[in-house]
Design goal:
- The protein has 6 helices and 12 strands.
- It is α+β, with helices and mostly antiparallel strands.
- Strand 3 and strand 4 form a beta hairpin.
- The protein is extended.
């Protein structure tokens, strides 16, 4: 035993265990917690302390909501002015009170909802203002890095993804979901030299996050696993691992470029190193015909024909 002088032996004959935090009765006997309670309740020792009833302090008492089926509780009592019953915040203006008519109920609910509506409107106005400021800053070479950082911070604030992904491995994107399950028209480019003639690509990112879902994935994952995770996070139907007429692929919103259409085992960190993907990018996940993917050559690339 490493600490022979630490603790004491329980004097209950059926126990005799060493307890490192023993309890001693006024009669001089020492017990473990379990047998100390038995000793006090037995009534054999006149010096043993009497058990005390546990009483809630005023701050510790839980007030249960009076609404039928509601299991919420509050630390502070909130009584209805009409029926003097306690209700939680959600059921504060409850229709069960016989002294509240429909008109009064509507007024009360409006008073409750008005601040929430004003907050949503103010938040939307603020988001639009930030988006516009970032867009202006991206036009200045001196402010591009700062604007890009702010854009990435906005995505990180609301990003969703598996909590099991270590923070140090997380990379963040804004993803636009498909509107339906139909395969989208794509442009197939077999000659790399023809890519530059395909369309004029904007040089700056689009900071508008409207209609996108901020997500994070692991830089250690393969592209296939990343697509699976994005589908789980965004509630997108994913049949990539099943036989079907369509497959999901990831596209850059900036130019419609499909990220590695034929190789799903490429690692996300490799795509970031080669700048195929940039953290904070707006991406589009869309359905593509399986026949298109089956006919791809080694140097063939595909682009979304219509980017909204």
């Amino acid at each position: 035993m490493e600490f022979p002088s630490l603790g004491d032996q329980c004097q209950n004959q059926s126990c005799n265990q060493i307890d490192f935090l023993p309890l001693q009765c006024k009669c001089g006997k020492t017990y473990c917690r379990e047998h100390f309670n038995e000793h006090c309740l037995s009534g054999d020792c006149p010096l043993a302390p009497e058990p005390r009833e546990v009483k809630f302090q005023s701050d510790d008492k839980i007030y249960k909501c009076s609404e039928s089926g509601c299991k919420k509780g509050n630390l502070h009592e909130m009584l209805c002015n009409k029926c003097s019953k306690h209700f939680c915040i959600e059921h504060r203006f409850h229709p069960s009170c016989p002294e509240i008519d429909d008109e009064t109920m509507a007024i009360k609910i409006e008073q409750l909802e008005a601040p929430r509506r004003q907050f949503r409107e103010a938040n939307k106005h603020l988001e639009d203002k930030i988006t516009e400021n970032i867009r202006k800053a991206l036009q200045s070479s001196a402010k591009v890095k700062t604007a890009s950082k702010i854009h990435l911070m906005r995505i990180k604030q609301k990003a969703l993804g598996p909590k099991s992904v270590p923070v140090g491995n997380r990379v963040y994107f804004a993803v636009k979901k498909p509107l339906n399950l139909d395969p989208k028209p794509v442009t197939v480019v077999k000659n790399v030299d023809d890519i530059n003639n395909l369309k004029n690509v904007e040089s700056a990112l689009n900071p508008d996050l409207k209609d996108t879902v901020p997500v994070f994935i692991s830089s250690k994952w393969s592209l296939g696993r990343a697509i699976d995770s994005i589908c789980d996070t965004c509630n997108v139907v994913n049949n990539n691992n099943k036989t079907g007429e369509t497959k999901l692929r990831l596209f850059r919103q900036l130019d419609g470029y499909c990220v590695s259409p034929g190789e799903m085992d490429v690692v996300i960190s490799e795509l970031l190193e080669k700048q195929v993907l940039l953290e904070g990018d707006k991406l589009v996940i869309e359905y593509v015909s399986r026949n298109v993917l089956c006919d791809l050559g080694d140097c063939t690339q595909i682009f979304l024909s219509n980017i909204e």
